[in-house]
Design goal:
BirA Bifunctional Protein, domain 2, 7 helices, 7-stranded mixed beta sheet, 265 residues, SH3 type barrels, globular, alpha+beta, 2 domains, 5-stranded antiparallel beta sheet
């Protein structure tokens, strides 16, 4: 798999943060343009690449979001990044939760923006989406062999498809100036190293607690979701210890563990 030279702003930022990057600092592959960083990471994982590989791109022609959606990835407008994880099986359900906290924390540390999270995989500033996360598991028999954790962060103002532009924001749009791309990546990877290490040592409480703090604005809001061909509505209450969304429907509490949740006004 060929790659391009890593831009100097990224190498310098990663070098400054090297002591905080854990497994994510020593193996970085940069691509000016690619189809999907998650796809490239999966190829490496299937070839037994070590945990901690980071594949980053300046643009993607086939970036993916959840539920088969496309992730708009215009050149120079964002960071499009995937990492290879080989977590214990009991950690897998909380990978996306940990990543949400990490990306929000990294954005805040690098830009000063107050970033919040929304279940299951979105990072927001105010009412607009700034970043998204996609975790894809590689299965071998009954177990999970690896997880490809991908994230996209909108850095610069860009021309997005109409259905995206009304809901999206960027760090540049929020700050009124271009962000430091290398610093954003370094701080996000450092935060990911912190929270992933917490999961691996069994400290799931610190991760879910940090997520709840950043999700406070989305709790007690009405949501709807589809299950077995039926649309249901309820009030988002919390997440449980396994990362499922807890929703109150009338007097009952239920768990939403997968699929799409639509947050209503």
């Amino acid at each position: 798999m060929t790659s391009d030279p890593i831009p100097s702003d990224i190498t310098e930022a990663l070098a400054r943060a090297s002591e905080r990057l854990g497994p994510f600092g020593s193996r970085v592959s940069w691509h000016e343009e690619t189809t999907s960083t998650n796809s490239l990471a999966a190829i490496l994982a299937e070839r037994d690449a070590d945990e901690g590989w980071v594949i980053a791109a300046n643009s993607q022609s086939a970036g993916r979001g959840r539920l088969g959606r496309t992730w708009a990835s215009p050149a120079g407008a964002g960071l499009y990044v995937s990492t290879i994880l080989r977590p214990p099986f009991d950690v897998v359900p909380l990978i996306t939760i940990a990543a949400g906290v990490a990306i929000a924390q990294g954005v805040e540390a690098s830009s000063g923006l107050n970033a919040c999270v929304k279940w299951p995989n979105d990072v927001y500033v105010g009412a607009r989406k700034l970043a998204g996360i996609l975790a894809e598991a590689g299965m071998t028999g009954p177990g999970v062999e690896y997880v490809i954790l991908g994230f996209g962060i909108n850095l610069r103002t860009a021309s997005y498809p109409p259905d995206v532009s009304t809901r999206a924001t960027s760090i540049e749009q929020e700050l009124g100036r271009p962000p430091d791309r290398g610093l954003v990546l370094a701080e996000c990877l450092a935060a990911l190293a912190e929270h992933y290490a917490a999961l691996r040592r069994g400290d799931t409480h610190s991760v879910t607690s940090a997520w709840r703090t950043r999700a406070a604005e989305s709790f007690r809001r009405q949501v709807e979701w589809d299950i077995e061909g039926t649309t249901r509505r309820g009030i988002a209450q919390d997440i449980d210890a396994h990362g499922a969304l807890i929703v109150r429907v009338n007097e009952d509490l239920g768990r939403v563990i997968a699929g799409e949740v639509r947050w209503l006004p």
